Automatic annotation (TrEMBL), chains A, B:
Example of a GO MF term: metal ion binding
Organism lineage string: Eukaryota, Sar, Stramenopiles, Ochrophyta, Pelagophyceae
Record keywords: ATP-binding, Nucleotide-binding, Purine biosynthesis
Alphabetical GO biological process terms: 'de novo' IMP biosynthetic process
Protein's recorded name: ATP-grasp domain-containing protein
Record-linked InterPro entries: ATP-grasp, ATP-grasp_carboxylate-amine, ATP_grasp_subdomain_1, PreATP-grasp_dom_sf, PurK, PurK_C, PurT/PurK_preATP-grasp, Rudment_hybrid_motif
Pathway where this protein functions: Purine metabolism
GO cellular component: cytosol
Stored PROSITE patterns: ATP_GRASP
Organism: Aureococcus anophagefferens
Length: 382, 382
């Protein structure tokens, strides 16, 4: 496969914002990107050489979509790994490997993997359904093994009488970590010899929707914590023999220990700032590893960056999005909005993000908090 | 018009690389971009909500394309200004103004405008066809009044016996300037109160094709020359009452005087480095002014940048492009290739560009020269 020019066909499972931002990079290499998504209104719809509407969890549909492609990647992990494997057998380069996606799709298998490899992570038990939840004491975190995303499928149980638990589904119960900070390290890995890890970022969550509210890079932690975070994240990709981009979410606990929370085998919300703040963005890296091209430098090109998600307002009626505050945001130096082209807003839906970059971390964070308050999206219909 | 979201329809006359790079920016504002180009293989073909194949110089076709749009811009100046005017009458916001495009389409009118406004420019005469060429002495530069681009339509006449002149067409004859450097300033202007001029860049030409070979920013000139260059370029946009992006090509002559060579009413080859090297790229600015959004900061975010065009090799047979050297280029920190998605290469055709950024000007230039030697594009067929 020649990696440049439209004779190279790249497929993406999922046509959301992550695929869209990868396509923005693919344009520069003149790569022909083809996308499959269940929604005819997917954000990638008008930016592709070929768009296929279909069920990403249907193995036959995935195989039919990918037959004839040179390479295939994903922007969402809820996809048919059987379909991906069938494409590998047909000679398509598939990034990440289907076995890794299958492992990561199941939070129980993820946790078991960390335990088997001695990778620091919170103590846990697996539970088929509705059994005794008291083995680890309280408080605990209950996570559905499958299908959770953006804080959905996760609940904190304060004590045995807490009735907010998910009933009747296989789940992971974890000891609740006394979290000092939530960090994230995005690691790109093409091969054993071509691995790049970005600076750790720090995540601040919105307690209303349990969605990341503010990402700040670099994290406000010691050099020692930064180094240990990168080392731990890199250890995860090496133990997996991972190929692709792995977002490694970490807890720094109050005792100073770093634990792996969970991982995602794709570009990640905690890496959006790399578009403006780093020599090579996470999306460019995903494209490179998918095409088996050398990874780029992850060096920061700005001293500080912060990222704010643009979420549907809590009371937004479902319908066409109406954005506010963006004109002023564009008039502020160092502020970069990215809208995802979603045709419909719903409460807390990720409709875009805004990155703030600059030379002074405190000023960048202050601007990002202003953006958080002033930029909004709702639907105007009554 | 709300400037965000797909309910805003932007039309672009021309579907080449300049439109393509603007679309890459438009994705971030979720603007719906629609493109008209004579070629079904135009670089923008697969990145638009609507693609119309048609003759850009046909007023009725331009009007039919643009009816119903919120705003319209251009990425090439050889378009029907009558069609643009018809769209203005229909209420479409047209950027730049048709009258400015008409003036700039004719190098004779351009020169006359500079003379009328006292804007420094080389002495010239207009000639209908084939008259006496000796009025200004020799050497002189003969430029066709219409239709020239990328060095085509321009010839240097050494003396009266020089037979290389264009025959039978209206032209401008200019005294040949004793050029010390060729500079360029890109000025963005939304209104009298919202004007931004980038740092002057320095252009190095390839004598074989008379095409820009290397652009370096900042230009290696004194602060005084930089200030005078920006002032002169800004004076041109103010005298025009221009709206849009104007690339002002300048000569610094051997006596230290700065003269306007010519202008282009659109994004320009000499501004491609702004994608990586400046807080806001020229393409983002064009999008902003088209949407009547505030212009962004033009501050450099890298200390030095250089840009190399990727041109079809001199002996390239016409056909599908085959790129070489890009893998190594991607493996070099600070090197950013941009391919334009052209389906066919011909000798000297602009197929892409590569930007080099860094903290040390000399190192950036050295890397750019290496890219110039090592990155190529040809067609492999015999």
């Amino acid at each position: 496969m020649s990696q440049f020019g439209p004779s190279t066909r790249i497929g993406v499972l999922g046509g959301g914002q992550l695929g869209r931002m990868m396509i923005q990079e693919a344009v520069d290499l003149d790569a022909r990107v083809e996308v499959m998504d269940p929604s005819a209104e997917a954000p990638c719809r008008y930016l592709t050489h070929r768009f296929v509407q279909g069920d990403l969890c249907d193995a036959a549909a995935v195989e039919a979509f990918g037959a004839g492609l040179d390479c295939l990647t994903i922007e969402i992990e809820n996809v048919s790994t059987e379909g991906m494997e069938a494409l590998e057998r047909r000679g398509v380069r598939v990034v990440p490997k289907p076995a890794h996606v299958r492992l990561i799709q199941d939070k129980g298998l993820q946790k078991q993997f960390f335990a088997d490899k001695g990778i620091a992570s919170a103590p846990f038990v697996l539970q088929d359904a509705d059994g005794d939840r008291g083995a680890l004491g309280y408080p605990i975190v209950q996570k559905l093994r499958r299908g959770g995303y953006d804080g959905k499928g996760v609940v904190v149980l304060k004590d045995a009488s807490d009735e907010s638990y998910f009933k009747g589904a296989p789940c992971v119960l974890e000891q609740k970590v006394a979290i000092a900070k939530e960090l994230s390290v995005i690691v790109c890995r093409r091969s054993r010899d071509d691995v790049k890890a970005y600076e750790p970022t720090e995540c601040v969550f919105d307690p209303r929707g349990n969605v990341v509210q503010l990402i700040v890079s670099p994290a406000d932690v010691s050099d020692d914590v930064k180094a240990r975070s990168r080392a731990l994240a890199t250890r995860v990709v090496d133990e997996l023999d991972f190929v692709g981009i792995l977002a490694v979410e970490l807890f720094l606990d109050e005792a100073g220990e770093i634990l792996v929370n969970e991982v995602a085998p794709r570009a990640h919300n905690s890496g959006h700032h790399t578009i403006e703040a780093n020599a090579t963005s996470q999306f460019a890296q995903l494209l490179r590893v998918t095409l088996d091209l050398p990874l780029g430098s992850v060096a920061p090109v700005r001293d500080a960056a912060a990222m704010v998600n643009v979420l549907g307002e809590a009371d937004a009626p479902k319908g066409a999005p109406h954005y506010s505050g963006l004109r002023d945001a564009l008039d502020t130096p160092g502020v970069y909005p990215h809208l995802y082209g979603k045709s419909s807003v719903t409460p807390f839906r990720k409709m875009g993000h805004v990155t703030v970059v600059g030379d002074d971390r405190a000023a960048v964070v202050a601007t990002a908090k202003h953006v958080l308050e002033s930029v909004g999206v709702t639907c105007l219909k009554k």
